[in-house]
Amino acid sequence: MTVYATFDSPLGELLLVGEESATAVGGTALVSLSLPGQKGAAEVRDGWRLAPEEFEEITAQLRAYFAGELTCFSIEFARGAGTDFQRRVWRAVEEIPYGRTATYGQIAERVGSAGAGVRAVGTAIGRNPLLVVRPCHRVIGADGALRGYAGGLPSKERLLGLEGALVP
Predict the structure, then answer these.
(1) What is the pLDDT of residues 122-143, one digit of tens each?
(2) Residues 50-97: tens digit of each pLDDT
(3) Which residues are paired to 8 by β-bridges?
(4) How many whole angstroms separate alpha carbon 9 and alpha carbon 12?
(5) Which residues form the Methylguanine DNA methyltransferase ribonuclease-like domain (predicted)?
(6) Best CATH choice for the domain 84-163 from the list 3.30.230.10, 3.90.105.10, 3.40.190.10, 1.10.10.10
(7) Known catalytic residues?
(8) What is the pTM of this model?
């Protein structure tokens, strides 16, 4: 069953969507975390159950992250989302340390898609359904400039500022 909750963050009200899972901490695997006004954001659908109690561990981690007390999330993501290429890109993004950035070109190299693959990497990153916890905000342009972010560049800049990452 699909469950959801909202979380009041410094970026606005986040929408958390999950699938009940016997193996997940708290019983829910995260499917989506959307920022307000995000391009392609999840929307609550008929049949979904409001269940904030299912997201207590996730919201505790988000609270600690936004307070500057957590640098690495420990959240179970639902399996099966995205193409094989997108999942490879998302795994590479998950490896960018807190407070650091990587370029789209560096991510393309890590997934074996250097050169022309930079655009495909950007597209895959743009389809990341787990903003904040899968840190696509840490990916910047080759010139150090902030480029695309589904939650908007002000949110990307705010997240990088929170982490102390160098923002040009």
Answers:
(1) 999 999 999 999 999 999 999 9
(2) 999 999 999 999 999 999 999 999 988 877 678 899 999 999 999 999
(3) 13
(4) 5
(5) 3-77
(6) 1.10.10.10
(7) 136
(8) 0.90
